[in-house]
Amino acid sequence: MHTYRTLGTVALLACVAAVGACDKNGRQSITGPVSGALVKFHNFGVGAPGVNFYANTEKVTAISSANCQPPNDTTSVCRSTGNEATTGTAYGALGNGGLYNEIPVGSSTLTGKIAALTDKDLVIATATASLENGKFYSYFVSGVYDASAKKTDAFVVEDPIPTITDFSQAYVRFVNAISNSQPMTLYAKSSVSGNEVAAGSTVAYKAAGTFTALPAAVYDLNTRTAGSSTNVITRTAVSFVAGHVYTVTARGDMVSTVTANKPALDNTANR
Q: Which tens digit of pLDDT belongs to each residue from 173-226?
């Protein structure tokens, strides 16, 4: 049996929720020795139910039930396997609090399975990737959930964490997880200097841009399509901390009128 473990620790920081999500800005240690690939799991499928994440047949993430919190933690179930909540990882959230999970190398089928009792363990999103030892990856449940077919998209991108040589800089890249979007470029405008720079180049759906060095500061973020000066998605007052590495992901539905499903920019720390 393979062992799947979560690496590092997260410092819990206060965050402001926009469209039901928050920055995952805790810093994870990813410098220790590993024996496998490292994968971060996102549920960014609009309208998707809460899921547990799997690598092949092994469950990688789940959420513990409050039924095993003191004083209810003396039962044999709580002392052995624990009770699993039926909420899973909700839309806009990351499995295991945004930590990387160690996964055996080789071809791996990564899936999101319904956590609720209704349709329990039904696969709604699947992506296959060839995982290499010591490399980092992100798996995204993406697009818009089809409630009739009970399916949504998924994809995997590599996270080539840059080697930091200048600790006055933050490193930022853009991922596009919106299935009905046009290719977009992420722009970051400093709230101090007013200077705006592109964080990489144009990124299509299911793709990731390159990590770009930006001076540590607070930025207003915008995405724009090629040749356009009109902002498509905007998020203000995002802090990029020196020496940290971030992925900004576009998620949502470009045509939705439901506030929670409208396009938004998620900011997640890779390290």
A: 999 999 999 999 999 999 988 999 999 999 999 999 999 999 999 999 999 999
CA distances from 75 to 64, 65, 66, 107, 117 (A): 14, 13, 13, 39, 22
Among 210, 234, 209, which Cα is nearest to 220's?
234
The pair of structure tokens assigned to 93 is 């959230």
Closest CA to 170 of 106, 249, 248: 248
How many distinct structural domains can be found in the chain?
1
Determine, yes or no, domain membership for 75: no
Q: With H, G, I as helix, E, B as strand and everything else as coil, classify residue 142.
A: strand
**In contact, 64 and 158? CB cutoff 8 Å:** no
Q: Is residue 73 part of a domain?
A: no
Q: For residues 90 and 116, is the Cβ–Cβ distance under 8 A?
A: no
Here the tokens at position 170 are 């933050």
The pTM assigned to this predicted structure is: 0.84
Q: How far is Cα 114 from Cα 57, in angstroms, rounded to an integer? A: 14
**Residue 76: inside a domain, yes or no?**
no
According to DSSP, residue 210 is labeled -
Locate all alpha helices (DSSP H) within 106-169, ordered by sequence. none
